[in-house]
Amino acid sequence: MLRFAVIAYWFSAGLFLLTAATVHTRAGHLISGNLEKIGADGIRTAGKNLKWENVARIWVNPAPAGRVGLSDVLTRIWRGDHKMFPDETALDPSSVDTVRRHYLTVRRLGNTPGAILFEGKLNTTHSGTYHFRLGSDDGARFFVGGKEILTTPAEYSFRRATKSIRLDVGEHLFRLEYLNLASYALLELEWSGPSLPWSPLGAVIDWPLPQAPPAIPAAGALAWNGSYIAHPVESLTGSRVRFVGKPAGIRLSTVNASAIFFHPLSLPMADRIRSGKVGREGVLLVGGDFLEGEILSIKDNVITLQTLLFGSRKYQGGSQAAAVFLQKPAKERKQWIVRTLLGTEIRLRKLEWDGSTLVVNQTPFRKLRLKIGEIREIAYLAEPNVLERAWATWAAMDTQHKRQTIAGQSSFDRTYKVRSEAKVYLAQLDEKWRRLESEHAVIQQELKAILAGLKQHELVARKARSDLAETQSNYTLANSRVNLNAHHFNPKIREARELKMRRLTEAKAALEAEKKSLMEREKSNSDNVTKYKADRDRQQGQHEKHAADRNAGLTKARAIFKGDSRPVEIYAAVARTRKAREFSESRRNRSR
How confident is the model at residue 17 (pLDDT cuts 50, 70, 90)? Predict the structure, then answer.
């Protein structure tokens, strides 16, 4: 368990080490680096601590910078013979290509003489030295930021020029003048720089135009306070908005809802909702028509609309109605705006943190917990809501760009509606998964209760077995006692037992007496042996003394008697033998 806790700790710490952040302070400074800490006290990035009152905007894991190269390129063409590049202020162009491209092309001039002026923006994502190569037939002049960089002379031949300049990160004004004196128009412009290999800025043919940004990229709901919930809406009722999958932490009432989007909306579709600079109460149909009127009721996902021309009409949310505009949202004001990776936009008066987790507890959110890995941006600014920003984007487009966007509506539907349907399906799967998890948790609880009951029953069974063994032992003991009592109270058995006990007592007494007699005999024998040994030692001493005296007498006699001593020795030996025999017989007699 401790090992798991240590692994979890280092894993959570690794999340911060691997999370990048870019902070824009209210003083106008930009700080980029690893996000080391975030919480109620502020943030720490690149070794610097910042309080929330000093932070204007923070991007968590910021996406790479925008597209590198040209953008918003406008083309003006002057056809005819021109020895020098025409003055655009004095001579109107023959044609103007208002399609905003991100590359150069001389395809429209073909093999006819004329001049082309390209104007747009050159985007760079790294500061450093950039290298440019220009090739043209005939002449060309290349400008960046209002400064002339490269020039090729108009001499009826293909000429090249190269140069290197330093550019900072951002957008730079781009201008290229091309003059074709005769034959087929040829123009080449290449560049390279930091983290950028040699790549062309022009093309021989027209490329497909990039798709316009969506107004509402995902189905969801716009709250009255400007928050946008990027989650598919299941149905509407008179009191609340129901989301697919019933996501936790989101509770939006119809009173606090400003607009409901059942499908993603393109810029021209979203523009049909407004009248002037504000939205109109009504229903935007799937076909693109907007019906303005008073919304009488919303029940079971059916919107009842009272119109001036058609009277009362009912529309099914999702299948017939693409969006419903209920009321004008509140005016933007300075507050915290939190954008998530899923597209939700949350507006808060203050930030509440539980460690590194953001806790959102302001309508329409209730105790919604967001981890740092789910947040894309945190900013403190006054910004219009997502619908008003879409209106402003549409209003800033020129006529040609609007036509292109309208023409690409089918492509928009193929791209974003499929994504919306996939999100709905994923939300349904998520709800099903949560339901299965809750059912699994209930089953686990039931299984846990069953196992606890089984364990209790096992304990009861073990106790019952123990009690049974104890009862059987007590029964055996009681049975033995009963048998013993039965034998004790039987006269014959009692007499036999008393006789047995009496004989046993007598045998014990006889044994004790025998032991006592043996001990006394052993003591007597020990005394006799001691006395015998003492007598023997005394007699042995006397004998040895007598023998010594005899030997001394014999020696003395030998010394006195000089003749044959053989008879004397024989007599002495016989006398000694007789004495020894008498001594042995006396000992034998005493031992008897």
Answer: very low
Amino acid at 409: Q
What is the rounded distance in angstroms from the CA atom of residue 274 to the CA atom of residue 290? 10
- Report the phi/psi class of residue 119: left, alpha or beta, with left for phi > 0 and alpha for psi in -120 to 50: beta
Domain boundary among 60, 78, 104: 60
The C-alpha atoms of residue 304 and residue 307 are separated, in whole angstroms, by 10
Helix (H, G, I), strand (E, B) or coil at 183: coil
> pTM value?
0.59
CA distance 109 to 102: 18
Q: Is 170 left (phi over 0), alpha (psi -120 to 50) or beta?
A: left
Q: Go through 541-573 and write b for each residue having 16 or more CB atoms within 10 A of its CB, e for each that does not.
A: eeeeeeeeeeeeeeeeeeeeeeeeeeeeeeebe
Question: Around 127, how many Cα atoms within 13 Å sit in the side-chain half-sphere?
Answer: 2
Rounded Cα–Cα distance for residues 279 and 307 (Å): 16
- SS3 sequence of 109-141: CCCCCEEEEEEEEEEECCCEEEEEEEEEECEEE
Q: Is the peptide bond before 329 cis (omega within 30 degrees of 0)?
A: no
Q: Which residue, 257, 275, 509, 472, is CA-closest to 385?
A: 257
Domain end position, chosen among 12, 43, 60: 60
For residue range 262-306, what is the model confidence (pLDDT) as tens digits? 889 999 988 888 877 677 888 999 888 888 888 888 777 788 888
Choose among 164, 433, 216: nearest CA to 344: 216
* Alpha carbon distance 571, 578 (integer Å): 11
Dihedral (CA of 45, 46, 48, 50) sign: negative
Beta bridge partners of 579: none
Contact yes or no for 55/26 (Cβ under 8 A):
yes
User: Domain of 95: which CATH number?
Assistant: 2.60.120.260
Phi, psi (5° rounding) for residue 370?
-120, 125
Q: Are 216 and 270 in contact (CB under 8 A)?
A: yes
Token pair listed for 34: 């690893």
**Domain enclosing residue 281, as ranges:** 220-431
Number of domains, the chain: 4
Residues in the chain: 592
Does residue 288 sit in the same domain as residue 424? yes
pLDDT in tens, 403-459: 878 887 888 888 887 887 787 778 778 878 888 988 999 999 999 999 999 999 999
Angle at 305 between CA 297 and CA 298, to 5 degrees: 25
In whole angstroms, what is the distance from residue 140 CA to residue 351 CA? 56
